[in-house]
Predict the structure.
Amino acid sequence: MLRRGLPALALALGLLTVSARTPAAAQEVLEKRVFEGGAYQTRGGGTIANLRIGYQTMGSLNAAGTNAILICHFFSGNSHAFGRLAAGGPAGYWDAIIGPGKPIDTDRYFVVSADTLVNVNVPDANTVTTGPASINPDTGRPYAMTFPVVSMRDFVETQKRLLDSLGVKRLALVAGPSNGGLQAIEWAAAYPGFVERVMPVVAADIDAWMQGWLDIWESPIRLDPNWREGDYYGQGREAPLRGLAEAWKIVTLHARDRLWAKQYDRQPLEGQDPARRIGDHFAIERWLAEAAAARARTSDANSFLYMIRANQLFLNEYPSLAAAVAGGPARWLVIAAPTDRVFLSEGVGELVEALKAGGKQVATARLAGPLGHQNGVVGMAPVGARIAAFLAE
Amino acid sequence: MLRRGLPALALALGLLTVSARTPAAAQEVLEKRVFEGGAYQTRGGGTIANLRIGYQTMGSLNAAGTNAILICHFFSGNSHAFGRLAAGGPAGYWDAIIGPGKPIDTDRYFVVSADTLVNVNVPDANTVTTGPASINPDTGRPYAMTFPVVSMRDFVETQKRLLDSLGVKRLALVAGPSNGGLQAIEWAAAYPGFVERVMPVVAADIDAWMQGWLDIWESPIRLDPNWREGDYYGQGREAPLRGLAEAWKIVTLHARDRLWAKQYDRQPLEGQDPARRIGDHFAIERWLAEAAAARARTSDANSFLYMIRANQLFLNEYPSLAAAVAGGPARWLVIAAPTDRVFLSEGVGELVEALKAGGKQVATARLAGPLGHQNGVVGMAPVGARIAAFLAE
C-alpha cells in the first residue's frame, strides 16, 4: 500500500503534478478495438441486427473482475478519453486524470471507454458505432431515419454487454462529462449492484427546458434542403452540411462561456465593417462559423438527431431522477462548472439535493476556467486530487 | 403634494395595488401616431429617404418640456408599452407600472414610446417603422438587404427627432426592457445633458459571447431557401417563414427559463411516443414550434436580421461601456432577473460596477418569477414601488 499511498497523498497535497509518473517515453499506444454484440433489441422495441461499437482500455482487470472503471463520453466525443491511439497523436480528452499514476490510476484500475450507439463521428476512422449511417442488412442500404430510436438506457445496455464480454463483474466507478455524466447516472439507476461510485461531471437532469434546447440544437438540420428527411446518403447526394454546421454552432457557443469569448472583444472581421455593411460580420461570428463547419465535415446529421433524442430520453423509464437513483450506489462525486450554460447551477444543485435526500454520500467539486460547460471536458486537471480521494474512500 | 404623496407612500408599503386608482371606466383609448421625420442620415453613413416611426403618448408635457419619460421597447416589441389602442383591447406590456396614479404616473409625466427603426412587426397594423420592408423611393420596391445598416444609436437619434418635434426639452427618465434597456443606456451616452435618470431592465453590455448568440438567433433565416438573400417580397414569392419561426424558437426559449418549462414535465405529445418513433416529439417542442410559427406570421425576416445587427452594434461608437456612460446622467436604477439566461447576472453585475466606478448613484432591484428574461417585460408590477421611489429621488 505504501507505494501507492504516498503518491496519492502527495497528489492530494498538490505536491506532484498528475503527469509526474508518466514520462513520454513510457506512453503506451492504445489499440482501438471493436465489440461485436450481435443482434440487439432496443428499449423501445426496435431491433439492431448487428451491434458494433468501438472501445479502448488501459490497465489490467483483476481476477475477480472488480477493479474496472467505465468512462462515458460527451455528446460529440468518442471512446478516446485517455491515452494515445497513435505514436505522437493527440491524447484523450481526460488524459490529464486517467493513466498510470494519475488520479484514475491505470496501475490499479482497468479503465474502459466505448463509443456510444448513434455516435455522431461517423466519418472519423477512430469511431466505431451503430446508427442511422450503418447499413441495414435487410436492405443493404443505410438505415437513415428507419434506425430505431435509442435512449440513454440503450447506451448503458450496450456498454453492459461489452463489459460482460470483458469479464467485468463490478465497476469501481462510472464517470463522464455532460452526455457522459448522464450515462453515468443512467448506469447507477439501471445496475445499482454493479456500480460502486458515480461521478457525473457538468451534468444534471434533463428537464423540459433542456429538452427544448436539444430541439433547438438539432432544428437547423431539418431546415437544410439537403437533409431530405434523412435520405442523403449515397453517390450524387449532398449531406446537409450547412444545417449540421449551424447545429454545431449552437452547441459550440452554448458549451462555452462569455469569459472565453472576451478574446474577440466585439472586433469586426479584418477588413470588414458591420456598422456599414449588412453582409459584414464580427470576429466571433467567423470563428463560430469556421469551427462549426469543420465539425460538420467530421460528423453525420442523422446521427446528431438520434443523439439528441437519446438525451431527451434521459431516465425515461423512471418517474423522476430521485426515483431512478433511490436504490443505486451510495457514493457520488458531482463535479460542476459554475459558469456552465448548458447544465445550469440550479439543475446541478437539484441533482445534489435529490441524491442527499436519497441518503447518498455526495461530495461536490467545482471547475474553474473560462470555458463554461467545456471545462468538464478539457479542464479536469485541477480536480484530479479530489477524484483520487473519492476513489480511495 | 399630499394628494400624490399618500398613494406613493401606500404603494411603497404595498397597501394599494398599482391599478387601484385606474377604474376600467376611466381607461383612455390611446391614439397610435406617426412621426414623419424626413430624410435621415444613418450613423453608418447611409440615407433613409423618408423616416417614419409610430409612437404613442400618455399624460401632458409641461410648459418647460421637462416632465417627459421615454420608454424603449424590447427586441420583438413596439411602442405599445402602456394603455390600450382600442376599447377592450390588450394593455401595453408595462401597463402595470405606467398610467394615471401608477409608478410611472401619467398624471405627472408625459410618457412617450416609439417604434424603433427596422422593427420586426411589419405585418402588424399597430406598428409603423422604416426598414428593409419599406419602399425605397428610388426604386419603388422594398429596400430588402439594400437598406442601410442601423445601430442602437440610430434608434436613439430617431427618437430624439421625435422628442424634439414634441417639444421635449429633458427626459426625467429613459427606460426599457432588454433591447429597450440597451437603448436607454445608449441614450445616456448620446445625450447626457438631456437625460436625468436611466432605468435599464434585464439588460447589460453586449459582449462577444452575446454577439455570437445574436448570430445564432438569426442564422436559421439565412438557411431558409425562401430567404433568397432577402429578396422575398412581392407577389408569387414566399417569405422564409420556416427559418424565421426557427429564429423565434431560439429567442423564445432563451428569453424564458426552466421554471416556466416545468409545466411540460418531459411529457410526450398526446398520442405520440418519442421513445419509439423518431418523428414523434415532446410537448415542449410542440409548444415552442407553435408559438414561434405564430410569431413568424406577424414579423419580417429581413427586419429581424437588421434588428440583430443593431443589437450587435450596441455602444459601437465608444471604446467601452464605462467610457460611454462616464459623462452621463447620475441616477440609475438597474433592474435584473437573476434567472435571466440572455443577459446573465454576471453581465448585469459588471454594468452596475462600471456605473459605480463612474461615480453614479446606482440602485438595483431584482425581478422574481418563473419567466427569466421575460420577467422584465411581463413581471414588472412587484418593482413598481421601487420605480416610484426612484422617480421621487
Observations:
- Chain B touches chain A through 64 residues (CB under 8 Å).
